Amino acid sequence: MNTIPKKISAQLEQNPIDWQSVLEDTIRHFDCSTGTLHFLKPDTSILELKAQKGIPDFLIPKVSAIPIGKGMAGIAAERMKPVEMCNLQTDESGVARPAAKETKVEGSLAAPLIHEEKLYGTIGIAKPVPYDFTEEEIASLMQIGDAICQKIN
């Protein structure tokens, strides 16, 4: 089984937790350029942006509040399973929202933040090139997500 990278574990032990640093360390760990961290707003079906890197300023309003079921993050939350795309730019499945293509990323992975079968939010990472994330990478991001969940409360 994978272990969470030491730097991310150390970030999660801080009080208060710097969520931007947690996200940036996660992005670096996977050799990505872009990422988002959304937490589920209590008693709603809205994912609220907690941290981001590499999202163009004009897209921030569109990613600040994402309904469950919309876009990669929303679908990962709805399915409670990771959603991956080798190339977001050429995707025609409808999973990626049209504005997502404005990020200029290609290989993308959105994972739900789940602990004990409860949804806490989502984490997304992306590369500027086409890329298929491995099963090990997906499992590792899910494990990081579980560790984040345990610190959200």
Automatic annotation (TrEMBL):
Transmembrane segments: none
UniProt xrefs under Pfam families: GAF_2
Superkingdom of the organism of origin: Bacteria
Ranges where the GAF domain occurs: 22-148
Protein name: GAF domain-containing protein
